[in-house]
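Below is one protein, fold included:
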Amino acid sequence: MNKQRKNEVISDKWFSKFENVNRLYHEYKTHGRLIIALDFDGTIHDFHNEGNLKYDRVVSLIKRCVNLNCQIVIFTCNTNYKNIKTECNKLGIKIDGINYNILPQFDNSEKKIFYNILLDDRAGLFAAYDILKSTIDRIEMENIQQGNFLYTLKIKDTRLNDFNDEKTIEVRSSKFKNELIKWYNSNYNQLVDAGIYKYEFYQENVENELEGKVYLDIEGNIKL
């Protein structure tokens, strides 16, 4: 690959996926977050009530971003803010504002808000999704390699047939078994008093794909 010569004119730099991903990645590493502007109608919400539309991939990606400390601002011409908040809650999306500059150095009297990237069905959603997903994939893989990945452990009483008695704890560590033992020991008396003699621990990644099942009995023995 030829190195770029000094003073060489670069044509349409941001037409390159590599350049876009690289910029987002370095902005995240610099600030520890990204500010993501997210359109509402047609991007995560069925505005025309067609009834058969789902937005699973965008919603899943946004949740992964939130897990990495990114902030989500709804950027929309829809003025029903109450409904927007309700629908985002139903989707499990934590939002930090609607049509609002969350950075204090920017004036909220301006119509355009600041963001690192915009997801909008009328503004190249597929390309923006692809760039953001590639960036998040890169950050998550780096975290895994550094043993700094966020695991969610779902815990249920195995006497039940469903998750009505579900409890959730979060562990930020690569030492999965040690964290389980530590949690179990600290809650031993409470578990015994409740008559709970066996729990199942489900280790999931940020996309909620089952990665493994761990059994922990009353003696604190772990079986994979």
Summary: The chain has two domains: 13-145, 150-223. The chain has six helices and nine strands. The two ends are 47 Å apart (CA to CA). The helical segments are 17-31, 56-67, 81-91, 125-145, 176-186, 188-193.
